[in-house]
Specification:
Oligomer: homodimer
Shape of chain A: globular
Distance between the termini of chain A: 26 Å
Number of strands of chain A: 21
Structural class of chain A: alpha+beta
Radius of gyration of chain A: 22 Å
């Protein structure tokens, strides 16, 4: 720890966490969902965790890291799944959880510090009739900064597309790790420099994000006898422009049986769709359900749903979480299918080895079935075989079993992000080892 | 008139218009946009116009028409373009313009009498943060009932699709013309029986329609040197899920020169897009404009736009209206293009004979370039040749030069609407001659 003595002496008054147990805990995210990542990441720990409360403190930490050439990894709530915030080479963990100020909020937009939790923001925004355009299933604890730096979309993406889409991030305020630390305000298309860059190229301290009108969202589970019908229903609901919905999460049997709190509602052997739909469109929604021979087996009004259990916490990677609660040998994949034919082909080919879990999302103006399949893991080779089988048939796999930025969904080097990294992190101190093009 | 004496004696207290000039005026819509329809429809007049103020009065009129076997044609504001409300065989014109009561209005939905004007409804709805999901360019005078009975979509369709889409009409209350007149409440999928049926199968007295969140809509004109770029920009904006917009109306040169109140803003020889975009997405919108080498030549804040001139009144068939103000030999077409390649092919093939005017709308979850081309009319044969040229190349033409329900956009008999007509109008008294399958 002596290497940190000078460093810390410059940072008086800052909250420092040095207890090895706590530091180890704050070096993790949910990478244990992946049997590939677990052995790689489970012993990677930082040296110290710092919890700044203000941007001024962040600047001091950044300057200290530059001066002493200490690696720096930024962390939100640690709800990521690919080790986005795991320090590969020790150093400082900058935990943003104390930066919880909502700077302003108005119809259509909000400005927040990076550590603001999405759930807390939405509670505030809903008071004036608005809410986040999209949230992860971990909205209760996940931070806005973490979601922007490490996420790509979520509940709401069926209406508003992906975080990377123009308009879904208005501005980001970034602290550099140059010789003399700077504050840079990125606006317009420039925000893409740090959007989904895992915090490799600047410390995001503040974000301006757009808001969506807060419909009262009713929550329904629709059961189907045939999986194909469930999938077709999901796509049809996605395409139904006159029915406003926030989430269409479709699960093949036996996934519903993993949902302890829900499984009593879902008829045995059934497949199901978990849906958030605008309460005032419920009647039209039910007509659509009937036309696909679905059966509504669970229905909560927006008011009831907002108070207790929410289906949001069974969607996206919460599905995987529930599956792993039942059987820790289960893991997952992330895919984008171009159509339902490909979904059905994989569904039939893999059977229970790759259990189909669809999340319908909008991409480039059209609704596609994305998937977060629950996979029965046997070996790495078999997992890679499964991935290859999908890719050979035109399914895009955003591999969640890599901690490298480019090897997940992006596939290629993002030159703009790399250039920005070279500019703002000349000593390569930020989230070391995560950007393949900067290894 | 003696045939009406008994009839009228049963309808005491009702507003009756019998002045031939007024009746002739109230027998028209905007069919003069079509040189084909004009000679067919211009001498078609009703015998009397009745203006009920309540549903009870409507029921009395309906019963009278049945008892005396008098043809009945329902009329809203007469802003249609295909003679939807033109009485082909005289009789009674039921003018709904006195039925202006907004029964209730709440977040997400409103219930109105058929004669409520869309503009008036929106003013009221906006007070609580909502507005109609879609309106015609004639929103100031057009009625909700007329829009549902005679329209198909409009400004807002780029977000919410078509009026026929599930969810975009919640209920319709209909008076029949059976021996004993009945009131029927249609809900759910049953509303399709009377949706876009030209009032051939029941008198709509009341409607429940969904509402959309009322964003503050900024209004912009974007100029482009090349038409292709304008069209591509329109599609890209349509596909941009993170930029909320209500209208994307693209006009090839020389159409902008027809817009007297706007042409000074648009650079000479330019093509342009008229856009309503959420004020809080303006920054992202401008980035998109730049990436298509567009130039914003007109920009009004939502507040300013809501008070005076609105671009809405230059879009959809208001475009044709402005064009015909300059040159009455101009007419129009209505088309749906499956992609921009087909748009460009037609643009290049026809040159100034068919001036391209695109309205981007969502159909089945995807944004398509619909078109309301401005056409230099020469002969009927040539017009049919133009239509055939489009259809042969896969462009769907919703022919606006026919007054027959099935020969416009629908192309086929709507069995559900026909069955409902047989049920509720056994004597074939309603909007006689408009439903081809019931001639």
């Amino acid at each position: 720890m002596s290497a940190y003595e000078n460093f810390l002496s410059e940072l008086e008054g800052l909250e420092v966490i040095s207890s090895p147990t706590q530091v180890a805990k704050l070096s993790e995210d949910y990478f244990r969902f992946s049997p590939i990542l677990t052995p790689i990441l489970e012993n990677k720990v930082g040296d110290l965790v710092l919890r700044p409360k203000t941007e001024a403190e962040v600047i001091k930490i950044a300057q200290g890291c530059v001066n002493h050439r200490i690696p720096l990894t930024v962390r939100g709530a640690g709800t990521g799944n690919y080790g986005q915030c795991v320090p590969m080479h020790g150093g400082i963990i900058l935990d943003t959880s104390r930066m919880q100020s909502v700077k302003w909020i108005r119809a259509g937009a909000a400005c927040v510090e990076a550590g603001v939790k999405l759930g807390a923001l939405d509670k505030k925004a809903q008071e004036i009739g608005w809410e986040s355009r999209m949230v992860p299933s971990t909205f209760r604890s996940a931070t806005v900064g973490g979601f922007i730096a490490g996420g790509s979309g979520g509940i709401g993406s069926v209406l508003y597309g992906q975080l990377r889409d123009r308009g879904n991030l208005r501005s980001a305020r970034v602290i550099t790790l140059e010789d003399t630390v700077r504050v840079i305000d990125l606006r317009g298309d420039d925000v893409q420099k740090v959007n989904h860059a895992y915090g490799t190229n600047g410390i995001i301290t503040e974000l301006e994000i757009p808001l969506a009108p807060a419909y009262p969202w009713a929550e329904c589970i629709v059961a189907f006898k045939e999986f194909e019908m469930a999938a077709k229903f999901g796509q049809a609901l996605g395409n139904a422009d006159g029915i406003i919905k926030k989430m269409i999460s479709v699960h093949a049997h036996p996934i519903p049986s993993f949902f302890t709190a829900l499984k009593s509602y879902v008829p045995d052997q059934s497949h199901c769709a978990l849906v958030l739909v605008s309460e005032s469109d419920l009647e039209a929604f039910k007509s659509l359900v009937r036309s696909y021979q679905g059966e509504i087996c669970y229905e909560k009004s927006a008011q009831v749903a907002s108070k207790g259990l929410t289906l949001v916490e069974f969607s996206w990677n919460h599905t995987t979480l529930h599956a792993r609660t039942v059987d820790t040998s289960l893991t997952y994949l992330q895919s984008i299918f171009l159509d339902l034919d490909a979904v059905m082909e994989m569904y039939r080919h893999f059977g229970d080895e790759v259990m189909m879990h669809l999340e319908f999302i909008r991409m480039g103006g059209k609704v596609f079935p994305a998937a977060i399949q629950v996979v029965r893991f046997t070996t790495s080779d078999r997992l890679n075989e499964i991935i290859k089988y999908h890719e050979d048939r035109g399914v895009l796999i955003a591999n969640p079993h890599t901690y490298l930025l480019e090897d997940g969904g992006m596939k290629t080097v993002n030159q703009e992000q790399l250039d920005f990294k070279r500019l703002v992190d000349p000593y390569g101190l930020m989230n070391v080892g995560k950007m393949r093009s900067f290894l």
